[in-house]
Amino acid sequence: MAGRLLLDNASLSVEPGRKIGLVGRNGAGKSTLLAAIAGDITPDGGEIRLSARARMARVKQEAPADLGSLLQTVLAGDEERTALLAEAEHATDPQRIAEIHERLRAIQADSAPARAASVLAGLGFDTEAQARPVSDFSGGWRMRVSLATALFLEPDLLLLDEPTNHLDLEATLWLEDWLRRFAGAALIVSHDRGLLDSCVDAIAHLDRGKLSLTPGGYENFVRIRTEQALQQARQAEKIATQRAHMQSFVDRFRAKATKARQAQARLKALEKLPVIESVVEDTPTRFAFPEPEGCRRLS
After folding, report:
1. pLDDT for residue 67
2. Could you say which of 27, 79, 119, 198 is the most buried, measured as most Cβ atoms within 10 Å of its Cβ?
3. Cα separations (Å) of 71 from 83, 134, 222, 262, 284?
4. CA torsion sign, 155 to 156 to 157 to 162?
């Protein structure tokens, strides 16, 4: 919703190699946070700091354009490699040619096609499919190509927004294994609890504009949140009892001169009682279905 505050003094640090799952109710601002980190939008305040020369990659929400075959499309995602190879074809200065080839060796440009093919295979594209043009595939399969491009880059920071949406079980399991072996840092928005349990080191919960970090996977996060909810429910019940007792005293004795001072003191104490906010922020959706009509027996 336009004009709605999504992030308010939210702070999160992602150390090198750490993988964090980002969760929260729909509309809390998870995708907005990823977009801000990626530079797609500019926050009204605050700052986003990245380590010097850190490489970042994300899965674009739109399907990739038809740049040729699937393999060519993924390889084109490495803009530095593509630019260096293009420059190498026309460079004439011996020193510059040497610099180009040295950089190509440093980024392992020769092994790039094999690495790209391996990622595509893991996401369900066999050798024959990898040679076909992007236009041959539907939107869901094209999104797999976008995911393959981001993974192929092996960046320092990987941003993933619902990466399993277009994957079958086999590809999802492959992605989980890839993420476990991935040496870089990752920030992952996902409703896939299995992915968040097997691949992340911590869960960042975005709620009411704030971020809280819980070590471990999603199951541990739910356990801790449930314990917090029970503790807060007990505390809220205790305070509600105190509030009702004090209010009853005030209502009974505030008009009596002999008890007026005590009633006033209880009234001030009432104002100081804390308000316990619920840990569970989502309101459950309830459904009601009409009773089905009786079925006639067929003779």
Report:
1. 66
2. 119
3. 17, 9, 40, 80, 45
4. positive
